From TrEMBL:
Its EC number is 5.4.2.6. Keywords: Carbohydrate metabolism, Hydrolase, Isomerase, Magnesium, Metal-binding, Phosphoprotein. It is an enzyme of class 5 (isomerase). It holds the Pfam family Hydrolase. This is Beta-phosphoglucomutase. It comes from Gordonia mangrovi.
Length: 236
């Protein structure tokens, strides 16, 4: 009923863009932070941060890793760690402000899938690079579905490598008491798909919410299946 291999006992869900629409809020907050930095650094020749920049360099990665990856893509390699942290802090302040003002909605199809998964006895964890994981889950009324949460705070506290390294997903599987081959990963970021493949998880479902060449890129990264919404899997 869930469109997954019969051996699957645990589901590890990314959060932003998979369960909730907060990926859009993250992208907009990153744009404000990066455009402010770029325009100040080179007022006459700067090129704005784009949606493709977000998908290619920031989406799914821990905050500071995303800053470094994007700046490197623009051949900006001379910034110190204080500047990296300041860009990330500015982004997070904008994100939290928007979250507090506007709240967040879960994707209806994701809620239907979570309900079906819970009814079928599939155990559920959330693995996200965001340090705001608990707040987003609470705001979207999704905490009730989640047995284990691994987020950006855990990544920092435990010194884990961020996606596309598999460390956070492997920790999620460990906390759920299963080996990776018994778990499925749900991701909307290429870096997250790569992390799941690197961790040798049993099945990888990618959610394409942007269109264009994203689905093909997800398959190339190793996704076993690509869907536009999770409830496509319910009758699979």
């Amino acid at each position: 009923m869930l469109g997954l291999p019969e051996s699957t006992s645990v589901a590890l869900f990314d959060l932003d863009g998979v369960l909730t629409s907060t990926a859009v809020l993250h992208r907009n907050a990153w744009k404000q932070a990066f455009d402010a930095f770029l325009s100040e650094r080179d007022p006459e020749n700067w090129v704005p941060f784009t949606e493709q920049d977000y998908l290619d360099h920031v989406d799914g990665r821990p905050r500071d890793d995303g800053v470094r990856a994007f700046l490197h893509s623009r051949q900006i390699d001379d910034v110190d760690e204080e500047t990296v942290a300041a860009i990330g802090t500015g982004k997070n302040a904008e994100f939290v402000s928007t979250l507090e003002t506007n709240g967040v909605d879960p994707y209806p199809g994701s809620v239907r899938y979570l309900e079906a998964a819970r009814a079928a006895g599939l155990r559920i964890a959330v693995v996200t690079s965001s340090k705001n994981g608990a707040a987003v889950l609470d705001a979207a009324d999704l905490t009730k579905f989640v047995e284990v949460r691994v987020d950006g705070l855990d990544i920092v506290a435990k010194g884990l490598r961020g996606k596309p390294a598999p460390d956070s997903f492997l920790l999620g599987a460990e906390l759920m008491g299963v080996t990776p081959d018994k778990a499925v990963v749900f991701e909307d970021a290429i870096s997250g798909v790569e992390a799941a493949v690197a961790g040798k998880f049993g099945y990888v479902v990618a959610i394409d919410r942007v269109g264009g060449g994203q689905a093909a890129a997800m398959r190339s990264a190793g996704a076993d299946r690509v869907v536009n919404d999770l409830d496509e899997l319910v009758s699979a």
